[in-house]
Design a protein that fits this description.
Length: about 150
């Protein structure tokens, strides 16, 4: 399968930036928390990182569900992590220390999947989600908890 190119261009002043996505008619506005010199008027790159993980899990779970022949009525992902600002704010880095630590993904999925299909949905989504893999390959400890909810049609 050929590689799919993605590109963005960011321009800004200080800690605020406008990011244009190649081929899209929209931009993404970013800012930083006041503690990092921003005005907190737009999501920070750190918030976008966690949002990307949530969204990527949803996209991937949708693909996996379709392959399994199951329906996802709705899904909710909550992503939490502890941020270690040491490297960013002081330039000091300790070997083996990740910037994001204790990453926690909680999913509630309303689906008609059997218990076995639901377990496959969970494991395959975690294995195949590109953003999840960025965290895993970076050595971030990830805890994932998925709960199956009944669908309205059940």
């Amino acid at each position: 399968m050929p590689l799919v190119p993605f590109a963005v261009t960011g321009r800004g002043t200080g800690v605020a930036q406008t990011v244009a996505v190649d081929g899209a008619d929209y931009t993404i506005e970013t800012d930083a928390y006041e503690a990092f010199g921003g005005q907190d008027q737009h999501p920070s790159p750190l918030a976008f990182t966690l949002a990307s993980l949530s969204s990527c899990n949803q996209v991937t779970s949708s693909i996996v569900a379709k392959e399994l022949g199951v329906t996802i009525e709705h899904v909710s992902f909550r992503v939490e992590a502890d941020f270690n600002p040491t490297t960013m704010t002081t330039g000091t880095h300790r070997e083996g220390e990740t910037t994001f630590q204790n990453l926690r993904v909680t999913a509630e999925v309303a689906t008609d999947a059997t218990a076995e299909q639901f377990e496959t949905l969970r494991t395959e989504t975690e294995r195949r989600c590109p953003v999840s893999q960025l965290f895993v390959l970076a050595g971030v400890e990830v805890t994932s908890t998925w709960t199956q909810l009944q669908t309205a049609s059940a």
